[in-house]
C-alpha cells in the first residue's frame, strides 16, 4: 500500500463502518477486516495503526469472536473501542465481568489522566455508551485514564502503544469523538492525509490497466452515479476496450431506457450497447414474491445477459467463437462498500441485512471476472471522485437507485401492469421533489407500491385500488438514515397528483421509519 492505512478489526458492531468513515474524513485510508483476519493479512497492508471495534458479545463467552491475541503483539499503536477495550483487558491478563449498572445512551466521562489520546480534550466530555460488561480488573501495565459514575471509561499502556475507551467516539452523540480519533490517527499513528480523490483516481486507473492488460471489459451500466463513475474510471484506464451495456430489465423508471442512453453517450462519451431484456426479466420474476429471491433472480439474469452480450462483443471484435481462450473477459460493476457490508457477513460476526444483486446475487459459475473499482468507497466518496473526474452535476447529484430497480419497490409479485403503475407514481414524486427544490437536499425520495387495496371514493363512485407509500430519507452513506420531513404542501401535491393521475391507486401514505430499524428500500 503506497498510502497511510489504518486497519479496523470488526467484532460485529453496527458502528464499525462509521469508524472507517470518520478516519477517511481525515483523508486517511481505512480498511475494515473481519476480527478473524490472519496476522499476515493485516501485516500485508502495512498499517500504521489498528482499531478494535465494538461488538455485541461478551469477551468471556465461549462463542465470543475468535480474534488472534497476537494482534496485541504487533508493536503497532492500537485503539480499542467498547468491546475492543474488553478484548485487550481479557487477553492481556485483566478481568471483564457483567456490569451491575449497564450503560446505554448518553453518559458523562471524566478524564483523570492526560494521555496522547485525550490531548486537547476537556476534563469532562459527553459520550455515547452501549455496554453491559465492564473491565473489573485492569491488565498489568495499564492505567485508568477515564471514568464514568459506574465504570471504567478509558485505559492506556502508553509504553506498549495501547489505548482503549469504553464509549463510542465514532458516533455523532460523542461531540469530541472526532478530536479523539484525530489524536490517534494523525498524532499517535503518524498517518498522513494523503488519501485524496486525485490519489484514488491515479492508483485505481493504474491498477485497472494492469489488471485488464490487453483484454476487453464490459460495464454493467445503470445510469446512476456508481456505475457511471466506475465506467469513466475504467475507460480512463483502457479506453475503447471498454463497452458499456445498459440493460432494460423491465423495472426501470419511466422513460429511463432512452434517457440514460442519451446521457451516457453524449455527455460522458461512453460506448454504450443498449439491450431491451424487459420481457426476459419479467418472465423470470413471474410468481416471485420473496425479496431475497427477487434480488437473486435479477442478479443471475443480469449476469446471463452480460455473458450473452460479452460473447457477441468479443466474437465481433476479436473473432472469437466462444469466450475463454487467450482473451480475458472482465465485468465492471459500481459496487460500493455498503453493498458489500449488507450482503454478506464477511466483516466479523455482523449480520447479513440483504443481498445486493451485484454482490450476494451473483452466480457461482459466472464466466466474467469482476472489476469493482469503487468497492471500498461510500456514496459521498464516489461523488467526490466523480467531481474530480469533471462529470456533469446531473449525474453526480442523482439520487441512489437500487440495482434491482422497481422490483424491490413493488411488494409482492412484479408484473408489467404493476411496474407501469409504479413508474407513473414514482415520476410524480421525483418531479414534485425537484420542483420544490428539495432533490439535492434529500438522499432518496421515491414511491413504493404496496400489496394492499383499500376502499375509496372517486367521482361519487366506490373504488377498491392499490396503496402507494412515499419514502424520503436523509443519509450520509446509506448505512443509517432518518426519514425526511417533506413540507406538507409538497406532500399534498404529490398525493393529489398520484390519486388523480395514476389509475390503480386511490390511497397514499408516508413512511416515517428510520434506518435502523427499517431499511431505506422496502425490500
CATH class bucket of the largest domain: Alpha Beta
What amount of the residues lies in strands?
Answer: 15-25%
Low-confidence stretches: 344-363
Structural class: alpha/beta
Radius of gyration: 25 Å
Describe this protein with a few key phrases.
Rossmann fold; 3 domains; 523 residues; alpha/beta; five-stranded parallel sheet
How would you describe this protein?
- This protein is of the alpha/beta class.
- The chain has 3 domains: 5-188, Class I glutamine amidotransferase (GATase) domain (Rossmann fold), CATH 3.40.50; 197-396, HUPs (Rossmann fold, 3-Layer(aba) Sandwich); 415-510, GMP Synthetase, Chain A, domain 3, CATH 3.30.300.10.
- It contains 14 helices and 18 strands.
- The chain has helices at 16-24, 39-44, 83-91, 177-188, 197-212, 225-238, 256-266, 278-285, 291-318, 337-343, 379-388, 393-396, 416-435, 488-501; strands spanning 5-10, 29-34, 49-52, 78-81, 95-111, 124-137, 143-147, 152-157, 162-165, 216-221, 242-248, 272-276, 329-332, 369-371, 444-458, 461-474, 482-483, 505-510.
- The strands form 3 sheets. It has a 9-stranded mixed beta sheet with strand order 2-1-3-4-9-8-7-5-6, sandwiched between helices.
- Strand 15 (444-458) and strand 16 (461-474) form a beta hairpin.
- Helix 5 packs across helix 11.
- The chain starts with a strand and ends in a 13-residue tail after the last strand.
- Mean pLDDT is 87; it is low at 344-363.
Amino acid at each position: 500500500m503506497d498510502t497511510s492505512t489504518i486497519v479496523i478489526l470488526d467484532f460485529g458492531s453496527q458502528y464499525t463502518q462509521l469508524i472507517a468513515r470518520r478516519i477517511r474524513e481525515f483523508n486517511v485510508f481505512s480498511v475494515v477486516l473481519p476480527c478473524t483476519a490472519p496476522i499476515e493479512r493485516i501485516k500485508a497492508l502495512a498499517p500504521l495503526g489498528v482499531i478494535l471495534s465494538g461488538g455485541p458479545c461478551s469477551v468471556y463467552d465461549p462463542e465470543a469472536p475468535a480474534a488472534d491475541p497476537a494482534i496485541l503483539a504487533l508493536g503497532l499503536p492500537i485503539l480499542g473501542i467498547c468491546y475492543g477495550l474488553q478484548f485487550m483487558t481479557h487477553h492481556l491478563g485483566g478481568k471483564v465481568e457483567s456490569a451491575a449498572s449497564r450503560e446505554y445512551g448518553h453518559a458523562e466521562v471524566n478524564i483523570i489522566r492526560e494521555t496522547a489520546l485525550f490531548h486537547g480534550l476537556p476534563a469532562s466530555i459527553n459520550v455515547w455508551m452501549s455496554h453491559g460488561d465492564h473491565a473489573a480488573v485492569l491488565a498489568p501495565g495499564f492505567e485508568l485514564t477515564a471514568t464514568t459514575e459506574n465504570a471504567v471509561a478509558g485505559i492506556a499502556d502508553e509504553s506498549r502503544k495501547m489505548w482503549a475507551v469504553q464509549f463510542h467516539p465514532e458516533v455523532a452523540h460523542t461531540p469530541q469523538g472526532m478530536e479523539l480519533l484525530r489524536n490517534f490517527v494523525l498524532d499517535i499513528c503518524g498517518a498522513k492525509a494523503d488519501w485524496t480523490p486525485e490519489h484514488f483516481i491515479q492508483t485505481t486507473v493504474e491498477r485497472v490497466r494492469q489488471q485488464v492488460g490487453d483484454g476487453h471489459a464490459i460495464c454493467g451500466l445503470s445510469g446512476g452515479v456508481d456505475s457511471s463513475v466506475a465506467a469513466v474510471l475504467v475507460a480512463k484506464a483502457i479506453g475503447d476496450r471498454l463497452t458499456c451495456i445498459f440493460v432494460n430489465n423491465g423495472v426501470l423508471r419511466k422513460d429511463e431506457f432512452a434517457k440514460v442512453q442519451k446521457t451516457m453517450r453524449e455527455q460522458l462519451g461512453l460506448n454504450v450497447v443498449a439491450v431491451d431484456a424487459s420481457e426476459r426479466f419479467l418472465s423470470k420474476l413471474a410468481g416471485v414474491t420473496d425479496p431475497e429471491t427477487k434480488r437473486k433472480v435479477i442478479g443471475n439474469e443480469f449476469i446471463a445477459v452480460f455473458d450473452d452480450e460479452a460473447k457477441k462483443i468479443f466474437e465481433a471484435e476479436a473473432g472469437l467463437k466462444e469466450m475463454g481462450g487467450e482473451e480475458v473477459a472482465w465485468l465492471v460493476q459500481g459496487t460500493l462498500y455498503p453493498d458489500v457490508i449488507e450482503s454478506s457477513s464477511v466483516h466479523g460476526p455482523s449480520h447479513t441485512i440483504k443481498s445486493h444483486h451485484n454482490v450476494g446475487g451473483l452466480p457461482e459459475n459466472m464466466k466474467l471476472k469482476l472489476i469493482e473499482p469503487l468497492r471500498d468507497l461510500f456514496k459521498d466518496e464516489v461523488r467526490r471522485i466523480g467531481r474530480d473526474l469533471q462529470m456533469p452535476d446531473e449525474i453526480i447529484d442523482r439520487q441512489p437507485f437500487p440495482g434491482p430497480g422497481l422490483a424491490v419497490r413493488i411488494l409482492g409479485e412484479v408484473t408489467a401492469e404493476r411496474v407501469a403503475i409504479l413508474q407513473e407514481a414514482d415520476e410524480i414524486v421525483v418531479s414534485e421533489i425537484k420542483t420544490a427544490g428539495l432533490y439535492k437536499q434529500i438522499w432518496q425520495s421515491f414511491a413504493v407500491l404496496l400489496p394492499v387495496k383499500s376502499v375509496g371514493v372517486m367521482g361519487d363512485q366506490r373504488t377498491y385500488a392499490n396503496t402507494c407509500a412515499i419514502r424520503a430519507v436523509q443519509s450520509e452513506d446509506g448505512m443509517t438514515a432518518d426519514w425526511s420531513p417533506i413540507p406538507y404542501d409538497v406532500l399534498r401535491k404529490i398525493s393529489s397528483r398520484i390519486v388523480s393521475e395514476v389509475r390503480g391507486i386511490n390511497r397514499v401514505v408516508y413512511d416515517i421509519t428510520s434506518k435502523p430499524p427499517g431499511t431505506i428500500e422496502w425490500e
